[in-house]
Amino acid sequence: MRVTEVSIMLKKIQVPIFPIILLSVATFFTPRAAAQTVHALLVIMDADSSIGSAMAVDRQHVEKLLESVGRIYDVETTTLLSSRNEATSKNVLQRLSDINPASDEVVFVYYGGHGGMNNYAEKRTFLALQDGTFWRDVLTDAVEAKQCRLKII
Q1: pTM flag (> 0.85)
Q2: Beta bridge partners of 116
Q3: I need a labelling partner for 87 at 20 to 30 A (CA). Which of 95, 116, 128, 150 fits?
């Protein structure tokens, strides 16, 4: 197989590899505590005309990862889809406020969609949700407020 064929093949896969590796390492190589739970919030922009189908594939990969994790730990997953008009900043913050992890548990937030930076001077990044710009620092602050063993965005 030539290098260009491998490159094309990898582009078609579109696997969210970094979150998968991070969550796998974090969950499989740490001591198990009784009733430990991974609280997962997936925000998927599957109705986006330019990337929606790719985000649906990403969602499938992340859900398979969470199924694997579920063989070892309890997993509570909430999925907000743009195709169901759920991917709004209000819903994200509400779902995060509903998560009350124990000190030995994990909070995992996965966003599948477009994002960007407001300008190069300020370098403030955002996620594009259905109701507009959702600043990443707002998301980070909401997750950081959780008192748990591991937080992954």
Answers
A1: no
A2: 126
A3: 150
